[in-house]
C-alpha cells in the first residue's frame, strides 16, 4: 500500500510517500522557523498561510523524487490534531480534496502517534511492547505501547512540556526560537558544576512531570547574574548546561522508573526533544544498566515531518480504517 502523508500541525509543512513493501520513498519538508523567529514563537495565522503556499510544490516534489506518477497512491494520511486549528485545516482540507479527486481513502492521524511510530522508519525498528517517552514542544508523556493504537498513559507533564521549557528558557536569556537546539548548542560551552538546578518531582513516587518551576529557577538565576553585571555568553552557557542537565536527568529518572514498573526492556524516545544528544546518551546508559535498549529516529524525523504521518497512516489504512463524514481537526486530542 502506497500512502501520501501530510503534516501541517504547527510550523513545518511535511509531505512524504511511504510504501508498506518498499518503505519510505520520498519525504520533503519546509520549515517556517525563519518566518516566526522575529516574533519569538509561532504566529498561527502566518503558519496557516504559509502551509497553503508550500503544499502543492511539496506534493509535486515527493512524487517526482519517488518516481511515482502523480496521484498513484492507495490513500492519503494527514495530521488531524493536536495542533493549531488553522494549520491543521490547511493540511486536512488539502488531503481530503486529493483523496476525493483520486478516489482513494483519507485518514486523519494523531500527530503524537506519528512521533511515537517515527523510530519504525529506521533500520533497526523497535518491536512491541515498549515504553515510549514522547517529548515535543506540546507534550511530555510516558506511554506503555503494546501495539498500534494500544497505548496506556503512564505519566505526563502537569504543566509545561519539555520542549516548551527549552523554548521558554531560551527566550528569557535572549536566545533564538526554537530554544531546544540553541540551549543544546550553548550548553556545549558550559562549565559543569557552576550551577545546580532542581530535578522536579523526582523525590516522590509516580511518573508525572513538571517543568514550569525549572523555567522560573532559570529566570531567577539569570536575573541574579544580570543584577551583578554578569550577562556574559559564558554565564548563558553555564545556565544552559545546568538547565539541560536538569531536564535530562529528570527524564532519565522517570524513564528508569517506567521501565522498572512495567518490566519492559525497550525504551523508545520520540518528538523534537528526542533529538537532544545529551538526552540520548543519558538514556542509552540508563537502559544498558537495566539490560534494556534505547530506540530513536534520525534527527530530522524527531521533529515534525511528513514521513511519520505517512507511516502511521499506512499502518491504520492497512488495518481498514478511513475517514467518514466531514473534516474535523482537533486542537486537543488525547492519544
Ligand atoms: O516534535 P516537535 O518538532 O513539535 C511538536 O510536536 O511540538 O518538537 C519541537 C520541540 C521544540 O520545543 C524544540 O525546542 C525542541 O523540540 N527541540 C529540542 C531539540 N531539537 C528540537 N530540544 C532539545 N534539544 C534539541 N536538540
Ligand atoms: Zn510534533
From TrEMBL:
<feature type="binding site">
    <location>
        <position position="167"/>
    </location>
    <ligand>
        <name>substrate</name>
    </ligand>
</feature>
<comment type="function">
    <text>Required for the formation of a threonylcarbamoyl group on adenosine at position 37 (t(6)A37) in tRNAs that read codons beginning with adenine. Is involved in the transfer of the threonylcarbamoyl moiety of threonylcarbamoyl-AMP (TC-AMP) to the N6 group of A37, together with TsaE and TsaB. TsaD likely plays a direct catalytic role in this reaction.</text>
</comment>
<comment type="similarity">
    <text>Belongs to the KAE1 / TsaD family.</text>
</comment>
<feature type="binding site">
    <location>
        <position position="111"/>
    </location>
    <ligand>
        <name>Fe cation</name>
    </ligand>
</feature>
<dbReference type="InterPro" id="IPR022450">
    <property type="entry name" value="TsaD"/>
</dbReference>
<keyword id="KW-0808">Transferase</keyword>
<dbReference type="InterPro" id="IPR017861">
    <property type="entry name" value="KAE1/TsaD"/>
</dbReference>
<protein>
    <recommendedName>
        <fullName>tRNA N6-adenosine threonylcarbamoyltransferase</fullName>
        <ecNumber>2.3.1.234</ecNumber>
    </recommendedName>
</protein>
<keyword id="KW-0479">Metal-binding</keyword>
<dbReference type="InterPro" id="IPR043129">
    <property type="entry name" value="ATPase_NBD"/>
</dbReference>
<feature type="binding site">
    <location>
        <position position="115"/>
    </location>
    <ligand>
        <name>Fe cation</name>
    </ligand>
</feature>
<keyword id="KW-0819">tRNA processing</keyword>
<keyword id="KW-0408">Iron</keyword>
<feature type="binding site">
    <location>
        <position position="180"/>
    </location>
    <ligand>
        <name>substrate</name>
    </ligand>
</feature>
<feature type="binding site">
    <location>
        <position position="304"/>
    </location>
    <ligand>
        <name>Fe cation</name>
    </ligand>
</feature>
<dbReference type="InterPro" id="IPR017860">
    <property type="entry name" value="Peptidase_M22_CS"/>
</dbReference>
<dbReference type="GO" id="GO:0061711">
    <property type="term" value="F:tRNA N(6)-L-threonylcarbamoyladenine synthase activity"/>
</dbReference>
<dbReference type="InterPro" id="IPR000905">
    <property type="entry name" value="Gcp-like_dom"/>
</dbReference>
<feature type="binding site">
    <location>
        <position position="276"/>
    </location>
    <ligand>
        <name>substrate</name>
    </ligand>
</feature>
<feature type="binding site">
    <location>
        <begin position="134"/>
        <end position="138"/>
    </location>
    <ligand>
        <name>substrate</name>
    </ligand>
</feature>
<keyword id="KW-0012">Acyltransferase</keyword>
<feature type="domain" description="Gcp-like">
    <location>
        <begin position="24"/>
        <end position="311"/>
    </location>
</feature>
<dbReference type="Pfam" id="PF00814">
    <property type="entry name" value="TsaD"/>
</dbReference>
<keyword id="KW-0963">Cytoplasm</keyword>
